[in-house]
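Recall that a protein's primary structure is simply its ordered list of amino acids. Everything else, from secondary elements to tertiary packing, is in principle encoded there. The following example makes that idea concrete.
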Amino acid sequence: MKIEMKFIVILLLFSAMISLSLKQQPPPPQAKVKFLVGKVEKQPRGVIKWTPLKFNTAVFEGDRIKTGLNSRVELDMPDGTIMKINENTIFDVTELKTPERDQEDKMRFTVWIGNIWAKFKKVVTGRQDRYIESPSAVVAIRGTTIEMDVDLQQKTLVRVEEGLVSVKSKDVEGEVMVGSNQETIVEKGKAPTAPKSTSPGQGEEGKDDQKAFNFRVDLDKFVFTDPAVLTTGIHVRGKLPAGARLFADGQPIPVQPGGHFEGFIRVKEGLNRINMEAELNGERRSKKVNVFVNTIKPEIRLSTPLIAGFYNRRDYSLSGGVFDLTPGDKIKVFINSEEVTEVSGRGSFNRTIILKEGPNTIRVTAKDRSGNTFEISQRLFLDTVKPILTITEPAQPVHFIYEPPPPPRSGRTRLEQVVRGIIIDPEPSSKIKRVVINGKEVQPNSDGTFETRVYVERGTNRLNFYVEDLAGNILRDNSRVIRVP
């Protein structure tokens, strides 16, 4: 018995130590969704189903991200690194470790297909590992701004805007160091190509570079809800090779001598597909920039008005329509934080709500894809309990009044009887609305007691009580009889 007790004590101590250790363990490292537009989905490790990725949610090690057409998502990494995952891309957060939790500082990502842009924080120690992989290449980062593009043939383009990276093939020997304003290409089964400048230089090398110049477009965000942008336009900036000219949908954008550009582009409500076209020495390069302007809030129109008050039915049917005039917008409708429907542009909804006894707050919210919201809120009170009536006088169900016959030709045929009692409206109380006794309305006292007089005649007189509360619960009682011989 002592051995068993000793074993149990040791087991409890061990369990407590494990529990304490788990409580002290920092939460797992995570990236945060900083920006999102369009259809972006996430697939956690070991899960088959794809679920929509939402703004300001977390992305963990092992998560896979997929972006659709005209879609994009930006992630903030634990160390401040920014990653932009562009449209039609499949991207894995392969490894995400932090010194606080894992005693390691590692980040490893995989681009299966598509395009990403990343700005990494500078790596300051040899124990910090930063890698981006593709089906054909491995890129080691030392703190840089980089763009990677992977096509259907698994060819990988690595372009460095600033910094230095090491690029290797996954299949054959070969490594190249790619510096600022340089790029390399890795094809499946081949070594990386020699680094090539991405901006015009001098001599023969400069002539080749001019044939393949590229440019960068920077936007603070890709969804705009401020109506001012319809007047001022959206602010755009970036970098071009020196001497290049730039047009946005045919509108010239000022370019500084060093190649930096900055300006405003006119936009309209809804999705704007802006064609950015640069020209240098007769060569043209273009980029498509998609921005969504959504300055109009959705609206809700209820078919059955949401009216505050008292109710005595648990089911409350709510229906109506929702619409948004922003072209291409999608609206979700929520009733008390539960999603009811999602419509494109306009649609209808219907939902039966089960009320609980007492106060209920009903909140109908419409939210569009940019976060603009419209809400209708009302407070309903459910009371399904009937009032309780207690009659104290006459005390008996059948009450006799012995009254001698009146004198001849007196004309006196009616008598008076005092009726007393108490009315209680049980919780949840909507309070008493009306009390009627034999057709006569009676006003109870604040404590529920009442007293009145009723006329009775010779023979059988029945007392009819009618009690109603504000919720519409009705009590009827005609069990009391007064007989006058």
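The chain has a mean pLDDT of 86. The chain has four domains: 23-196, 216-293, 299-382, 388-484.
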